[in-house]
User: Fold this.
Amino acid sequence: MSEQLEQELLSVALEAAERAGALLRDGRPADLGVASTKTSPIDVVTEMDLAAERLITDFLAERRPDDGVLGEEGASTPGSSGVRWVVDPIDGTVNYLYGLPSWSVSIAAERDGVTLVGVVAAPMRRETYHAVLGGGAHRNGERVRVRPTPPFEQALLGTGFAYLARRRAAQAEVLRTLLPRVRDIRRGGSAAIDLCDVACGRLDAYYERGLNPWDLAAGELIAREAGALTGGRPGRPADGDLTVAAVPGLFEELQGLLEELGAWHD
Assistant:
């Protein structure tokens, strides 16, 4: 029954993400990043965000009416089935605003606090990543694995920054110390895609402070199922204080260094 449930959840998540991704891709105004006298570009992005979340939640209500939902844009229903959907309709809204390709739709399904299914659709990359607990990670249906472990000084890391000025300043201090110790650092702008890039071998590791459950739920499962280790501060799961995903052999050293540098506080 569990395997049957997981496959049903995966099918629903894939279709919901595909529909929302198509809405966002095809409905984005060509001049969205240009200021207008009629409306703020930010308002348009908010409208698209809300429309995508509404599409997803309506679809979930139709297909899985007894499930709960937690959405970035305010959708919150407890449900009665024990399954909860965690939804980010646009992960990477600034990228979406500017017409950069690294934005995604992130949908995860949890049961009793355990993530069973994760789907991240990146329409402008023409890629969809998915994982089922215990079933490996996939990109466009093909199995993916993390890269072999490099020496720490040759690791390529991904990260992200907060919108709050005080937190950004603290993150810059961490970056200033960390950057000379690794190969390089990338800032992609979508936590979900960054986690999937670890899964696909495009990054050796990723860390960020300040993520919400909808930012990381799907991507973290995909990274883990591809062979990455994930967590937060030492001994804790990934959460808003800190999220770390890295290839084995790199994870503990990076996690320990981030703890030492205080990457978990402002």
In short: The CA atoms of residues 68 and 84 lie 4 Å apart. Residues 35-39 have pLDDT under 50 and may be disordered. The helical segments are 2-27, 41-63, 93-98, 165-178, 191-199, 213-225, 251-261.
